[in-house]
Design a protein that fits this description.
binds zinc ion; single chain; two-stranded antiparallel sheet; 24% strand; 5 helices; alpha+beta; Glucose Permease (Domain IIA); globular
Length: 281
């Protein structure tokens, strides 16, 4: 009984937070495309640690990815981030519980891909073989569980040193107060970078802030983002598996030295990666 009361209290508090977050976002107006953002806005966005190359808007002007929410103070933005992280973490735990339950009840293998009608069997098999062949990389980082679908652990081998955490900080280059949308790992140039989870390469790009960048989309609306790379060894659209090498660290873009910037997005917004990094699932 006490447990039930506690649960209801937690959900009530969560719903209240979501409602206040929604009201914070109501009166904002969003630029339609990146070309609509003026020079001053670009400078401000960059100084605040945002990534203008990540901004995406739908045809109605609604921000769908990497949103800036013009007008929000950094405190409000951090509070939103905290709520997003909490929500994402709870959903992840729920999802993992469901996965464990279903794996106990369902036999492993390609059962789910078997056709409803026997005439389609050969087609189903050739589709499956084609899907296997589409894999472009082999998992080589043994510290990442094979087939992991959520981004747990780190994208580097072992336990790399974190030199800057997620959240508010004085930017090491501009000296301004900024919001850091990920964590920085110290890494000498040329260190192998691995995807911690199965996914699809969503973007490979280069710009003055992130340098050589890579974004991978994973199950359940999660994405991982990698910056300042020396080189990227996968292409947009590639299927990648947990533990596959996807890039090498470098010192490109706006940095004070060689390191890997690593970000996690949930539902299009950056969240604090620390829960994911510190957890072995
Ligand atoms: Zn960083």
């Amino acid at each position: 009984m006490n447990n039930i009361r506690l649960c209801m209290f937690v959900w009530g508090a969560l719903l209240a937070q979501v409602a206040s977050a929604a009201s914070l976002l109501q009166p904002q107006s969003f630029p339609k495309t990146s070309a609509d953002i003026g020079f001053i806005d670009r400078v401000v966005i960059q100084q605040e640690g945002y990534e203008p190359w990540e901004k995406e808007y739908d045809r109605n002007g609604n921000c769908i990815s990497g949103c800036t929410y013009p007008g929000l103070t950094i405190q409000d933005d951090l509070e939103l981030s905290r709520q997003r992280t909490e929500n994402a973490w709870m959903q992840t735990q729920q999802y993992l519980r469901q996965q464990r339950l279903s794996s106990q009840q369902t036999p492993s293998g390609i059962t789910a891909e078997q056709p409803k009608q026997s005439g389609n069997l050969s087609q189903a098999i050739s589709n499956w073989v084609e899907k296997q062949n589409a894999r472009r990389c082999t998992p080589v980082n043994s510290s990442v569980p094979v087939g992991q679908i959520m981004p747990f652990g780190t994208p580097l081998v072992g336990t790399p040193t974190i030199t800057s955490k997620y959240g508010a900080r004085t930017h090491p280059v501009t000296g301004n107060l900024s919001k850091h949308e990920g964590v920085d790992f110290s890494a000498v140039i040329g260190t192998d970078v691995f995807t911690p989870a199965n996914g699809t390469v969503a973007a490979v790009w280069s710009d003055s802030t992130c340098g050589n960048g890579l974004r991978i989309s994973h199950a359940n609306g999660y994405e991982t983002v990698y910056c300042h790379l020396n080189k990227v060894v996968v292409n947009k659209g590639d299927k990648v598996e947990a533990g596959c090498k996807v890039a090498e660290t470098g010192n490109t873009g706006r940095t004070t030295g060689p390191h890997l910037h690593y970000g996690i997005k949930a539902g299009g917004d950056y969240i604090d990666p620390m829960n994911w990094i510190n957890t072995k699932n």
